[in-house]
Design goal:
The chain is built from 6 helices and 6 strands. It is an alpha/beta fold. The protein has a single domain, classed as Rossmann fold (3-Layer(aba) Sandwich), CATH 3.40.50.960.
């Protein structure tokens, strides 16, 4: 504690300077690229599995409503596939078509009593990553991998936290980031 030499009374520490002005000053002249949420300029595919209809209907609704809210109302294609294992092949065809600026992958894999969950979930995730990297195209991963139906319903609920909505926002922002990087 500091003490005033004349009065011998404690003196409060001067308020620390905010780190923000220093950080902002450090950023002068730096080009910052970050995702914007205007989707009116882009074309999107939503590729969704058919297993667990109630869950997927909610994820799809969340993704599509988010895309529309952000301006992509006329640039959305919905593609349905049987299951999560088939998802990467459909993603690859969509990516190869050149029709889309980003793809949103939606599905649901729920753990059971056999190793099937690990095989399907792992191969789905690996396949999505491979297609994204091969085509250098944003693919938002909205595939739920849960231990039970309750967890899946929570992640697909139409309120905040809907993973379809979150995947759509990620796709919108990644299109924006990549376009800025290419400018």
């Amino acid at each position: 504690m500091r003490v005033n030499k004349k009065t011998s009374k404690p003196v409060a520490k001067p308020a620390a300077k905010s780190a923000k002005p220093a950080a902002k000053a450090a950023m002068d002249g730096v080009r910052t690229i970050e995702g914007r949420t205007d989707a009116g300029f882009a074309r999107f595919a939503v590729v969704a599995t058919s297993w667990y209809d109630d869950i997927l209907d909610s994820l799809v609704a969340g993704a599509i409503s988010t895309l529309k809210e952000h301006g992509a109302d006329k640039n959305i294609t919905l593609i349905r596939v049987p299951g999560a294992f088939e998802l990467p092949l459909a993603l690859e065809h969509a990516a190869a078509s050149g029709r889309y600026d980003a793809i949103i992958a939606l599905g649901c894999v729920i753990r059971g009593g056999t190793p099937h969950f690990e095989y399907v979930a792992g191969e789905c995730a690996r396949g999505v990553r491979e297609v994204m990297q091969s085509y250098r195209l944003p693919i938002a991963f909205g595939v739920l991998t849960t231990d039970n139906m309750k967890q899946a319903k929570e992640r697909a609920a139409p309120r905040a936290g809907n993973k379809g909505r979150e995947a759509a926002l990620a796709a919108i922002q990644m299109v924006s980031v990549l376009r800025q990087m290419n400018d």
